[in-house]
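User: My notes are a mess, but here's the protein and flavin-adenine dinucleotide's SMILES. Can you give me a structure?
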Amino acid sequence: VLDAALGFLRDRVRPHAEQIDSDREAMRNAFDGMRELKLLSLRRSEKYGGPNVSEREFRAFQEEIARASGALAFLQTQHQSAVSLLGKHANEAIRAEYLPKMDSSLCVGLGFSQLRRSGEPICKAQPTVGGYLLHGEVPWITGLGFFDEYIVGASLPDGQAVFGLVPFREVEGQILSKPMRLTAMEAATTVAGHLSNYFLPEEKVAFKKAPGWIRANDAFNVTLQGHFAVGCAMAGIDIVLENARKKKLSFLENSAVALTHELSILRQELVDSQSDFAEETLSKRLQLRGRVIELMMRCAHAAVVSSSGASNVKGHPAGRVLREAIVFSVSAQTGAIMEATMKLLVRNSEQTA
Ligand SMILES: Cc1cc2nc3c(=O)[nH]c(=O)nc-3n(C[C@H](O)[C@H](O)[C@H](O)COP(=O)(O)OP(=O)(O)OC[C@H]3O[C@@H](n4cnc5c(N)ncnc54)[C@H](O)[C@@H]3O)c2cc1C
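Assistant: No problem, the inputs look usable. Here's the predicted complex:
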């Protein structure tokens, strides 16, 4: 499966990365290519059709797809995460209905980052006969026009959260915003949702989670999301190397070698931390996520600097990689990740105190 994936990324994605970033049709071609090759459910268990690639292979795939096209990586990861979430947490009826179709005919996005926000919940669920009434805002849902449904997360009065499957189109009780104008990855088509007395029937409830689950889940995932930043950093280094060859400048080649060395050490630390979910090591893992984000930004910046003025021309890969790095700096961000990243960005914290 992964050999096919790498060939696909090399031949059908990387050469079109600029169009995929900005043009929905190009994105659709790339996404449909993944569908044809059955690459959309890589972590699905054998019971529902597999291929259930190993954790190590899956993270390597995430890096390679982010290296080839950040926008495609971002779009498809919403669906791959939905496959994993349903596989891990959904009731058997939902698993049996959804998972077998999720490698091709049924695509599902996510809309639950609002659960990370502290204070009064912005998306609430009220139990009612036969299900729940949903009210409030879903500030981020990526994949309009690509995904059929999305998993919404809404807070219950007792602090639990209910996760349900909602059609990803305007229906009674749900209004979607226009696609957001974004600095990067616009073609992945992100919208905001507004729910007003939206009826979520019991049979579309995938699972419920205890208060604070999202925080525990985020703490578990701190380093996993870092692989996208690794892939984006690799894309930046690729551009530096290409410039070194084109411009015949040995210091550019030396810079690419040094950045690759630094990245490979950090990547190994990420891989080593993946089976470590202990509370005591959380601050170290947060720092690791921050370090990967910081290195990704330096690699993207190196791509720009080594490309000179041309990096400013619309459609230049260095500009795209730098813009993609913006998204990978904040996607799945929590307050703790923000703090860990800021600590690394501020060199002299005493002066700012
Ligand atoms: C292009 C794009 C597409 C996205 N698509 C999706 C998607 O499809 N599905 C999805 O679920 N998410 C999506 N996201 C959301 C993404 O994961 C969020 O960026 C991330 O969860 C951070 O949330 P936020 O940007 O809304 O920031 P906020 O929620 O405002 O803040 C981030 C963190 O800081 C903390 N914080 C903020 N203000 C305070 C405060 N005053 N006091 C204490 N703590 C505070 C919050 O608790 C939170 O943990 C997308 C994001 C982008 C940029």
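The radius of gyration is 21 Å.
User: Great, I'll file this with my notes.
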